[in-house]
Amino acid sequence: MTTAEKIEKINNELENYPTLLIAVSKTKSVEEIKGAYAAGQRHFGENQVQELNEKQAQLPDDIVWHQIGHLQRNKVKYIAPYVGLIHSVDSLKLLQEINKQALKVGRIIDCLLQIQISGEDTKFGLEYADAIDLLRSEEYKGLENIRIVGLMGIASNTPNEKMIKEEFHDLNVLFSGIKESFFKEDTAFKELSMGMSSDYKIALEEGSTMVRIGSLVFGERNYDNK
C-alpha cells in the first residue's frame, strides 16, 4: 500500500469524527514527507527540535508543524517563528519560555497542556491537580503570547484496551471540566490530542480531535534518516 493509500484509509476512518490526522514524521526523510504532502497531508508531527528545523527549512511553507515530543526550554527559540502547535507543554516554566520567544517573533503560539494519564515514569506530563494550579496561577494569566487550545495525553503502552480506554476517558472528563471552568467562552479551546498508531481507534471513541500516527502512514521508524 502506498503512502497516499495509507493516508486515504486513515482519513476515511476519521470521517465520522471531528478528528485531524497528524502524520508523525520523526526519523522520516524529507522525500518521504514530500510523498505524504503530495497525497494531501499538511499536518506533520516531530519529536526533536533539530530534526524539525532541518525539515522545515526544506519543505513547503503551508505545512503545519506540530511539536509533539518533550520540549526543553532552551530549544523553544528555534521553533517559535513557525511552529503551528506545541502539544507537549508540561510546566509553567516552559509555557513562560514559549511566551517569551513568541513575543520576540511577534506571534501568539498555540499550545496544549500535556497531562500524565498513564502513570508510567518514562512519560512526561502534568498531574491533574498541577494543570489546574497552572491555569489558576497569576503567572499564567499574565502570558499574552501563548494560547492554550486543549490537552494532550499518551496512554499506557499496554495491550490492555480497557486500561487505555479508561485513561482516554479520564482525560476527556478533565478536558470538559477545564473547558467549563477556565475556557467556557473560548472557542479556541477545543483540541484533545490523544491516540497513536496502536490505540487511535480507542481514542476516537473517547473524543480525540487529533490523532498522532506515524508507522501506519510511513511504516516503521527509520533511525538512519535523522
UniProtKB/TrEMBL annotation:
<comment type="similarity">
    <text>Belongs to the pyridoxal phosphate-binding protein YggS/PROSC family.</text>
</comment>
<dbReference type="Pfam" id="PF01168">
    <property type="entry name" value="Ala_racemase_N"/>
</dbReference>
<keyword id="KW-0663">Pyridoxal phosphate</keyword>
<comment type="function">
    <text>Pyridoxal 5'-phosphate (PLP)-binding protein, which is involved in PLP homeostasis.</text>
</comment>
<dbReference type="InterPro" id="IPR001608">
    <property type="entry name" value="Ala_racemase_N"/>
</dbReference>
<protein>
    <recommendedName>
        <fullName>Pyridoxal phosphate homeostasis protein</fullName>
    </recommendedName>
</protein>
<feature type="domain" description="Alanine racemase N-terminal">
    <location>
        <begin position="5"/>
        <end position="221"/>
    </location>
</feature>
<dbReference type="InterPro" id="IPR029066">
    <property type="entry name" value="PLP-binding_barrel"/>
</dbReference>
<dbReference type="InterPro" id="IPR011078">
    <property type="entry name" value="PyrdxlP_homeostasis"/>
</dbReference>
<feature type="modified residue" description="N6-(pyridoxal phosphate)lysine">
    <location>
        <position position="26"/>
    </location>
</feature>
